[in-house]
């Protein structure tokens, strides 16, 4: 059933149930978006008369307790395998069955606010952290749907001790063909090559793709660009409060082992995950707040 939450001359906001999951649909004069309340996961974002910026799997499953493949999953309070995180994070969350990418991707967030103006539709989602044993931590995500997609993931520590965590906005980008796609902006940046026994290297030139890619970039710049030759567009990725990034494409063999992932889908996607991981994790003092901000936009190639 569709439920209208707001309807104005220039925008529409609906809640629609897709299988197990409630989805928030937003459309205004600038763009449209779909957000799953489970995990506060942006699934789609598309400017008017343009191609989608985010990749969403054709095999995406909308099941309770399971992250949807694609869009922008929120990874928090750890990224990836818990055992690969710094010792303070492992100590805080010691758990033999710790799920990959943290605790918040599979729970329903609460819709706190909707604000509409001429530039954007802005929604604020709040994570019920008490449900995961972190009631002393406030976690909210503000999503602005306009000519760009803007996100602010804010963590606040109301406890009496430091809170250490890692995080990522695990963004899947849509591209025409990974073979004709390059990422600019990471030149001369240090990275960890996870496919070569976690060896540290330095990026030489733009990133191009010729096989499985799984790299963690450290001390990252505030802006990088995806250059898509066949679609003749440049996707800009601007961040604040993000000190690291993950660049990932599963390529051929790994794609065959992934859930909700067509065997050929690796050719039309890549992930650039704005993050604070490894030694770039956040140590949040009592009373302190940290905001990870992401802005995604596009323009034609010049």
Polypeptide structure, described:
By secondary structure, the protein is mainly beta. It has a single domain, classed as Distorted Sandwich (Beta-galactosidase, Chain A, domain 5). The protein has two helices and 23 strands. The strands form four sheets. Strands 7-8-9-10-23-19-18-13-16 form a nine-stranded antiparallel β-sheet, with no helix packed on it. Strands 6-12-21-20-17-14-15 form a seven-stranded antiparallel β-sheet, with no helix packed on it. A hairpin with a 2-residue loop joins strand 9 and strand 10. The termini are far apart. The N terminus is likely disordered.
Distance between the termini: 44 Å
Please identify the structural class as seen in this structure.
mainly beta
Number of domains: 1
The outline comes out as globular
CATH class: Mainly Beta
Number of helices: 2
Strand percentage:
over 45%
Radius of gyration: 19 Å
Write a brief caption for the model.
With 302 residues, the chain is mainly β. The chain has helices at residues 87-92, 251-255; strands at residues 2-7, 11-18, 21-28, 31-36, 41-47, 74-75, 110-116, 120-126, 137-146, 149-157, 163-165, 167-174, 181-184, 190-193, 199-202, 207-208, 213-218, 223-228, 233-240, 244-249, 269-276, 282-284, 289-300.
Ordered list of secondary-structure elements with their pairings:
Layout lengths: L1 E6 L3 E8 L2 E8 L2 E6 L4 E7 L26 E2 L11 H6 L17 E7 L3 E7 L10 E10 L2 E9 L5 E3 L1 E8 L6 E4 L5 E4 L5 E4 L4 E2 L4 E6 L4 E6 L4 E8 L3 E6 L1 H5 L13 E8 L5 E3 L4 E12 L2
Antiparallel strand pairs: 1-2, 2-3, 3-4, 4-5, 6-12, 7-8, 8-9, 9-10, 10-23, 11-22, 12-21, 13-16, 13-18, 14-15, 14-17, 17-20, 18-19, 19-23, 20-21
């Amino acid at each position: 059933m569709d439920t209208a939450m707001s309807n104005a001359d220039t925008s529409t906001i609906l809640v629609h149930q897709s299988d197990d999951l409630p989805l928030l649909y937003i459309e205004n004069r600038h763009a449209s978006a779909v957000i799953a309340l489970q995990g506060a996961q942006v699934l789609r974002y598309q400017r008017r008369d343009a191609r989608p910026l985010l990749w969403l799997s054709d095999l995406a499953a909308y099941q309770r307790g399971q992250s949807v493949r694609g869009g922008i999953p929120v990874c928090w309070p750890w990224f990836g395998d818990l055992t690969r995180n710094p010792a303070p994070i492992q100590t805080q969350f010691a758990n033999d069955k710790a799920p990959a990418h943290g605790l918040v991707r599979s729970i329903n967030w609460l819709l706190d606010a909707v604000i509409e103006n001429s530039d954007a539709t802005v929604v604020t989602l709040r994570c019920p952290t008490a449900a995961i044993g972190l009631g002393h931590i406030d976690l909210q995500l503000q999503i602005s749907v306009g000519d760009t997609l803007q996100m602010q993931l804010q963590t606040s520590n109301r406890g009496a001790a430091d809170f250490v965590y890692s995080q990522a906005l695990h963004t899947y980008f849509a591209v025409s063909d990974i073979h004709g796609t390059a990422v600019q902006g990471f030149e001369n940046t240090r990275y960890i090559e996870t496919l070569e026994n976690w060896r540290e290297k330095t990026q030489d030139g733009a990133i191009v793709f010729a096989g499985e890619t799984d790299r963690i970039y450290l001390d990252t710049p505030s802006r990088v660009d995806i250059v898509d030759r066949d679609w003749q567009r440049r996707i800009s990725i601007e961040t604040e409060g993000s000190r690291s990034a993950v660049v990932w494409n599963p390529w051929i063999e790994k794609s065959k082992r992934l859930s909700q992932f067509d065997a050929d889908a690796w050719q039309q996607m890549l992930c650039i995950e704005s993050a604070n991981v490894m030694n770039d994790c956040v140590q949040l003092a009592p009373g302190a707040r940290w905001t990870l901000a992401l802005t995604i936009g596009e323009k034609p190639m010049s």
